[in-house]
Amino acid sequence: MVYFNNAATTWPKPENVYKEVNEFFRQEGVNPGRSQDLKTMNINRKIFDTREKLANFFGQKNSSRFVFTSGATESLNLAIKGFLNRGDHVISTRLEHNSVIRPLNDLVQEGRITVDYLSFNKKGIIERSMIEDAIQDCTALIVISHASNVLGTVNNIREIADFAQQNNIKILLDAAQTAGVLDINLNQIKIDMLSIPGHKSLYGPPGIGSLFIRENINLDTLMEGGTGSNSLNTFQPEVMPDKYESGTMNTLGIVGLGAGLDFIRRTDINKIYKHEINLLKNFIEGLSEIKNIIIYGSRDLKQKVGVLSINLSNISAAKFAYLLQNEYNISVRSGLHCAPLLHKEMGTVNKGMVRFSFSFFNTLDEVNYALNVIEEIAKKEG
After folding, report:
1. Number of Cβ atoms within 10 Å of the Cβ of 215
2. Domain-by-domain residue ranges, the chain?
3. Three-class DSSP category at 81
């Protein structure tokens, strides 16, 4: 199978991730913080080490501000529902994933907050001026994706974050498509909360992620329970990160995430980015030679990650993807990509799009194969 659905979950994973998870599960796969035996102490150390690796990777010294979650969806829900108060106004965008839209709209339906979803420009990017025009006296939070999961277009987060800080507005960044591909240094970019998926370009297993919460922010909890610490207290502890990590932790995911971070460090994030952008460059150039191809979003590689959505003008996205997957063994993602406002904005709700997304483990030969297949399908369906 040629796998071009890495924006959903990267596959394959680096070999050291498979090895680390397998060895850990066979030798030490018990609960952290619930005993004082040697296995448990080793697990506690590995969890701490991965938390330290995360902090170092994102330019922070205090690793306790990185809370482990089940993934970006839980991180975004914790940040949104834990931060916002009744009467708050939120600025978000029509680029966002349902992991942002649905929790925000749930709070709107409760009458707790108001939200403005900003349109994007022709390139698929949010401009600072758009945010400036949307600010109200009660604006408390900006929720924005670093890069669109449909178009692969990258927003100028440094500029937006600087503006938010100047106006005493907190910013929550969804790094689903950029963590592990673009350098995100939280010491240089004043992001207040960062949603991090572990299973995408950080190369961890499914079911793991993290939320970075800056020191001046205290979120309400989504759930309470056992933390393995201060058990005499019948209320949830306030200490970080225990406050947000109730129940049995996904130790397999955490260990795998640590191994994924090790792989990126050894390989070099800039090398990973350049490889994926080179694949995208060749893909776009090849598509430009094929009749009836529609390419969505900017083609400017300086404003992209390795994600591109396309269509054939004369067939549905569903049929296009079906042919790719069932006749040529090319795995892609078709439909609305959990981004309904984007598709409404672009007029593709009924047709959908076909998304190709690359990882470090894809090759130029695979891209060329896909281009030949797309050209063949375009001729047959023309």
Report:
1. 11
2. 15-267, 268-381
3. helix
| DSSP code for 221 | P
- Whole-prediction pTM: 0.95
Strand order in the sheet with 333-335: 293-295, 307-312, 353-357, 333-335
Instruction: Return the closest-CA partner of residue 170 out of 102, 89, 50.
Output: 89
Distance of alpha carbon 45 from alpha carbon 56, whole angstroms: 16
What fold characterizes domain 268-381? Aspartate Aminotransferase, domain 1 (3.90.1150)
CA–CA gap between residue 37 and residue 40 (Å, rounded): 5
State the DSSP code for 33: T
Q: Is the CB of residue 73 less than 8 Å from the CB of residue 324?
A: no
Digit-coded pLDDT (tens) for 107-158: 999 999 999 999 999 999 999 999 999 999 999 999 999 999 999 999 999 9
DSSP letter for 186, please: T
Cα–Cα distance for residue pair 111/124, rounded to 1 Å? 30
pLDDT in tens, 35-61: 565 566 788 889 999 999 999 999 999
Measure the CA–CA gap between 232 and 13, rounded to whole angstroms: 41
- Confirm if 113 and 84 have CB atoms less than 8 A apart: yes
Task: Determine the 3-state secondary structure of 82 from DSSP.
Answer: helix
Closest-CA residue to 333 (of 343, 324, 346): 324
The amino acid present at 87, given as its one-letter code, is G
Q: Which of 16, 52, 18 is nearest to 266 (CA)?
A: 16
Both tokens of residue 179?
């963590």
pLDDT tens digits, 151-184:
999 999 999 999 999 999 999 999 999 999 999 9
Quote the tokens at residue 312.
């054939």
Q: Which CATH number fits domain 15-267: 3.40.50.2300, 3.40.640.10, 3.30.750.24, 3.40.228.10?
A: 3.40.640.10
CA dihedral angle for residue 94, residue 100, residue 101, residue 104, rounded to 10 degrees: -120
Longest Cα pair distance anywhere in the chain, in angstroms? 71
